[in-house]
Amino acid sequence: MVNLTIDGITVSVPEGTTILDAARSADISVPTLCHHPKLTPFGGCRLCIVNIKGVPRPVTSCTTPAEDGMEVTTRSSTLERLRRTLVELLLSDHPNDCMVCEQAGNCTLQELAYFYGIRENRFAGERRVYTKTDNNPFLERDMEKCILCGKCVRVCDEIQGVGAVDFTYRGFSAKICPPFEKDLECEFCGQCVTVCPTGALTGKMWRQKGRQQGIRKVHTVCPYCGCGCNLTLHVRDNEVIRVSSREDTINEGWLCPKGSFGYGFIANSDRLTKPLIREKGKLRETTWEKALEYIASNSLKIKENYGPDAIGGLASARCSNEENYVFQKFMRAVIGTNNVDHCARL
Amino acid sequence: MKNKPIIRICMGTGGIAAGGTEVMKAFKKQLKRKGIKADVKKHCLLHKVGCRGLCAKDVLVDIIVNKVKSTYQFIQPDMVQRIVDEHVINNVPVQDWLVTDDYHQFHNKQIKVVLSDCGTIDPEEISSYRAVGGYDALKQVLETGSPGDTIKTLKESGLRGRGGAGFPTGMKWEFCKNQSSPEKYIICNADEGDPGAFMDRSIIEGNPHAVIEGMVIGAYAIGAHKGYVYIRAEYPLAVERLRKALTHARKLKFLGKNILGKKFNFDIKVKLGAGAFVCGEETALIASIEGYRGMPRAKPPFPVYRGLWGNPTVINNVETLANVSYIIRNGAEWFASFGTEKSKGTKVFALTGKIRNSGLIEVPMGISLREIIYDIGGGIDKDVAFKAVQTGGPSGGCIPASLLNINVDYESLAQVGSIVGSGGMVVLDENDCMVNIAKFFLQFTQAESCGKCIPCRIGTKRLLEILERITAGDGRDEDLELLMNLSYDIKASSLCGLGQTAPNPILSTIKYFREEYEAHIKKKKCPAGVCRDLLDYAVLAEFCTGCGACKRVCPAGAVSGERKQVHRIDPELCVKCGACFEACKFKAIGKG
Q1: Which of A306, B358, B447, B591 has a Cα-to-Cα distance from B307 of 20 to 30 A?
Q2: Do B549 and B585 contact (CB within 8 A), yes or no?
Q3: Where a domain ends, among A13, A48, A75?
């Protein structure tokens, strides 16, 4: 363990802990834009700068390991002036269209602008103007709002292992984009959308469906596969308008394309919400009780007349391991056949 | 055979640009012509050599007959026949074309260590380097020295990094040596990118083996088996000569397995940079070698602890490494006898701009700026006044005439708001606008910012925009304060050296030439007559002869007037191109 003081408070953290993590462990808030606890430290946004006694210039707390005896200051008039300048610089190259931005209310940049009370901008000047050209089906990429924190680049490389985007160009024209600025052709997992601190990356399906007001958050489990990722459904007027996932869950907040964007079926008119029985070639709505009874009685009849091997069972990848286990047990022990399979083999 | 004539032709990039290749061809042709009769070819050595320093007088040619050296300047192919006939054959130098006093004056105050063999040896022949004691230092280190001894010598010599930061080289090597890691690397940083700087390029073009020898010695001292030279692809000649030198060195067992028969393996790879200035920053350079985008990362950890592929790595500049073999051969004391208490040895500078003798110079640390500019550089044209000297490139600052007596060393230059940097030195005269100079450097740093950190990416853009509006006549009263405040914030909060020093050209010009900024902002005038938007051209009636030269060159039809009558410029039509100003032989066009 190393012992250091941060803003006069003694903090004890394991060796290798960054000053930022040490500060946060002591409930000392340090602003960041490019930091993510699960990604490699970047040190690009410079907001987490702190002073260390004996070190002439401010250092980024996200990249500097805590050392024994360090005396760290996270707040001073100089540090706050520098942070304010940084946020002001970002806003000088930002559309500042929070009124219509999907991320309003859930945007770190907006929050910082609010805390530093920035309205007038000393540095007003040229803004990057890009036309939205990406025709991919899921991800809205509004690069004018991109602050180049590089979180999307890192999450794509380090967590997803895809590397669909990276930094290009230099200077003020630096930009994050897919190779040769083509349309995004990735897995569309949406991890980049999850980590984006501004409205640069959002879901195309989210557009004008609702932001933070009137939202009911429903915690549930993803129905798509047996992994059982935790989902948070953003529900407005009984419609799922967005899906997110909490970091304190089994899937650590990471989702796949189905979990992130595959919620369109919920309100789809083609979706079956009641069991159907086919009678004389036509499907008829019924209740679960009647449907199950129909299956049970007919299964018994078939078994008696033609033997158990006349029956086959097909389970689903959308069920959990336990459900699939019970199903094969049922087929083998109750029906008495080994004719059991799974859609994932198809 | 010992006294065979030697002909040396400057064929560095400067020499070649001035026609060195053609001069070389002409000499070959003339010698062949004469050789038929007198078989001179066998008795004559024709060498191409690297930069001789005084690029302003290229093509420079040395003729050595009976050990007497004569140097010719401004040589063109058609002059070669006479030189061969009169000097090489009959030993009568062609007096008309010999270098003049200023050539000698240029060299008088220089002390050459790194450049001592540059311009005299053939950079493409390893034998030429061996003949002047090349690779003796490596032999000495491998046969009688130890890594510890080598580092001790380096530390005693007081050699500091010549790339700009001035970190003690011996100490850097020692840090790396003390790391217990099976893999270590030594990298030569040849990504010289400052506008107006050509020191590293000239060293590699003129004496590549000195750099290689320095690297092998360094590798031995720190325990590395692999090295890289990270060199700009924009230096094709340097790359070609370096590659040739590496091949030759491998053949003679100065590189590769069991170097000089000892149990020491080391080889060097050449990695070409793709043109990013920021790759001169060591962590960006490492990222670039690893195949990533050249973007710096936060330090610590420093490369000596975690460098290339996470292994301890020493990164030294070309000039630093080129010093090493000379220090080993001549001793630490010899090297430390040059320079000041804290800045030992010599430093190579690229002297450019409004100076008579532009070129490559090597001077002892601590020499005064005045000596460099007036004694070595020969001053500037008589009818224009010296204004400032810009040192250290885009990271440096402008030093005004009032500070000409300061010593050129790491500490003194830092005190006045500039830096030694890699060694660029651009001389400015009264016709240079300091706001415009600051703008030039900001354009450079902004375009070369990697975009990783906010202050450098957006901050330098805003600085540039403010400078642009000042030079366009739209400067606001609060702009000076805004420039300074933003500059301080960028310096304090940027990630790497590029951003941390990018505002220096602004801060130093405001410090020493504030009135020039104020003239732009308040009076909307450019005192140096550079900023086009602030200029007005008018005919000075008392000098105008009505010759019509101005009228003929004006692309906008803004000049009117009858022949032999005073002409007039219509300010509404004038596009301020300055063509009339250049064309007038009577100084009858006024601008201001």
Answers
A1: B447
A2: yes
A3: A75
Q: Which residues of chain A have pLDDT under 70?
A: 346
Residue of chain A whose alpha carbon sits nearest to that of B491: A57
Number of residues that make up chain B: 592
State both tokens at B505: 């050209």
Alpha helices in A121-200 (DSSP H): 151-154, 191-195
Alpha-carbon span B394 to B443, nearest angstrom: 10
Selected for mutation to probe chain A from B458, B481, B483 (highest A CB count within 10 Å) is B458
Going from N- to C-terminal start, the domains of chain B cover 6-99, 126-336, 346-429, 434-523, 536-591
Smallest CA-to-CA distance from A225 within A315, A318, A321 is with A318
pLDDT of residue B12: 85
Q: How many CB atoms lie within 10 A of CB A257?
A: 16
Q: Which helix (H) or strand (E) holds B124?
A: none
State the pLDDT at residue B15. 87
The CATH number of B126-336, from 2.30.30.40, 3.40.50.300, 3.40.50.1820, 3.40.50.11540, is 3.40.50.11540
- In sequence order, the β-bridge partners of residue B344 are B339
* Nearest-Cα residue of chain B relative to residue A91: B458
DSSP H/E element including A218: strand A216-221
In tens, the pLDDT along A122-166 reads 999 999 999 888 889 999 999 999 999 999 999 999 999 999 999
Half-sphere exposure of A150 (CA within 13 A, CB side): 26
Beta carbons of B462 and A123 less than 8 Å apart: yes
Question: Greatest CA span in chain A, whole angstroms?
Answer: 89
* Conformational region of residue A237, where left means phi above 0, alpha means psi within -120 to 50, and beta covers everything else: left
Residue among A64, A123, A148 whose CB faces B457 most closely: A148
ipTM score assigned to the predicted complex: 0.90
> At B121, which helix (H) or strand (E)?
none
B15-42: pLDDT as tens digits:
898 898 999 889 888 888 877 444 444 5
B368-to-A269, B166, B349, B374, B412 alpha-carbon distances in Å: 86, 19, 13, 10, 10
Which ranges of chain B have pLDDT less than 70? 1-3, 36-44
CATH architecture entry for B434-523:
Up-down Bundle (1.20)
Asked if residues B558 and B567 have their Cβ atoms less than 8 Å apart, the reply is no
